[in-house]
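A protein record pairs a chain with a discrete description of its three-dimensional fold. The shape at a given residue is found from the number at the same position. Here is what such a record looks like in full:
>
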Amino acid sequence: MRPYQLTTTSFTAADPDGIATSQSPSGAGNLTLVSSTVTLTPPRFVTITSAGDDTGVTFTITGTRPGGSTQTEVVTGANAGAATSTLTFETVTSIAISGASAAAVEAGFTQSGYSDWLPLDIYSRNQVTTISVTVSGTVNYDIQYTNEDPFDRTITQTAVAHPAAAGAFTGATANQTHSTTTLMRAIRYKSNSGGGTVRLTITQQSTA
């Protein structure tokens, strides 16, 4: 296969009200967003910050996942703090609260997130996959893989840490290049923190 190259945009700082500014819903309904569709570039985790105890209500986030297909996640509110989604969103089109909030709430995004899955060639015999990551600026990142179908948009694929020796692709902060014979159906990049830029290059070859 031809090499993949993915360059992420620098992750700007987290913004706690970049999706919905402070408001106090009096009952179930949608939060008022800063625009009808909020685009997160690159995709990020969504945060919902509560001034009061909102552990008794849920927030349903609707939008798209990295790659563009529709995605929904239900997040339980926090007690005078922030609740964070487990999924990364590329866009947010609505956030619905299940009941009245205890006090003001706002929605925003973290500085972290992950890319869409990059499918690999699983039919090459005795394949070797080499991944190189070049970092510019300050960033903490993971390289993850999945053995589930990356084209199935009806599931959330299980992400597994890359098998590089000594966890070199987990919590990494510098340039890295590693090869593996582990069969992987797809690869993705996950930013944990920092505002740098990462260039990810994936090359596969068959040794048969």
The radius of gyration is 19 Å. DSSP finds no helices and 16 strands in the chain. The chain has a mean pLDDT of 92.
